[in-house]
Specification:
Helix content: over 70%
Shape: elongated
Largest sheet: none
Oligomer: single chain
Structural class: mainly alpha
Number of domains: 1
Strand content: under 5%
Radius of gyration: 25 Å
Number of strands: 0
């Protein structure tokens, strides 16, 4: 009987420790998510300035920036992947909700 009580206490303590670690991990992940969102917004502003400078140089100074299109395209990938965590936390994936809302009721329950 004492062994059962001991096992119960151990399971209870381990469960409490795991819960405390999960709360700390969630707080850390929230912090990382927030900084990645800020980085994504900063990169968007940087790309806007980069494209604006390229347009100015191309049409006003007649001297385009070499590789501007490739640079902008590569930065779009970083913008998207940095913002995915924030979008996931809000359950805000527009494309999926659009598809799911158009399904019949029985299929919606499965998805």
């Amino acid at each position: 009987m004492h062994e059962l009580l001991l096992i119960f206490c151990i399971v209870l303590v381990v469960g409490a420790v795991i819960t405390a670690l999960a709360v700390k991990a969630a707080a850390l992940l929230f912090l990382i998510e927030r900084y990645l969102t800020y980085a994504s917004a900063a990169i968007i502003i940087g790309v806007m300035c980069f494209v604006g400078a390229e347009v100015f140089m191309r049409y006003v100074l007649n001297s385009p920036i070499p590789g501007h299109l490739e640079g902008s395209e590569l930065l779009v990938c970083i913008i998207v992947f940095f913002a995915v965590a924030y979008t996931q936390s809000l359950k805000g994936h527009v494309g999926m909700t659009l598809i799911i809302e158009s399904l019949p009721e029985k299929t919606k329950k499965i998805s």
